[in-house]
Amino acid sequence: MPPFFLFSRFCLSPVKNIKATQKCLEKKISLWLNKINLMDLKILLLFVFVLMNSLLIFLLGVFRFRQAST
């Protein structure tokens, strides 16, 4: 989600209260950052899962090779 979606028409509508606009923008920015963190966490977990599977397959292959060579 690109950053320009943060500043939607709800926040930038002409309001008299500047603090309300600021809070709205802060809320949208924090929501966007939370989405980034969740995506990074999902990618990291997927990477760890693939890495563990690769390590397990490698170790099983080594174990079977040792068993077959004896």
Write structural notes for this entry:
The chain contains two helices and no strands. The chain is mainly alpha-helical and 70 residues long. It is rod-shaped, with a radius of gyration of 24 Å. The relative contact order is 0.08.
Defining key terms:
mainly alpha, 70 residues, single chain
Task: Please tell me what the overall shape is.
Answer: rod-shaped
The helix/strand series, from N terminus to C terminus, equals HH
pLDDT below 50 for ≥5 consecutive residues: which ranges? 1-7
Indicate the proportion of strand residues: under 5%
In round numbers, the mean pLDDT is: 76
Counted by DSSP, the helix tally is 2
Q: Mind summarizing the main beta sheet?
A: none
Number of DSSP strands?
0
Domains (count): 1
Percent helix among the residues? over 70%
Structural class: mainly alpha
What's the N-to-C terminus distance?
A: 56 Å
**Computed CA radius of gyration, to the nearest angstrom:** 24 Å
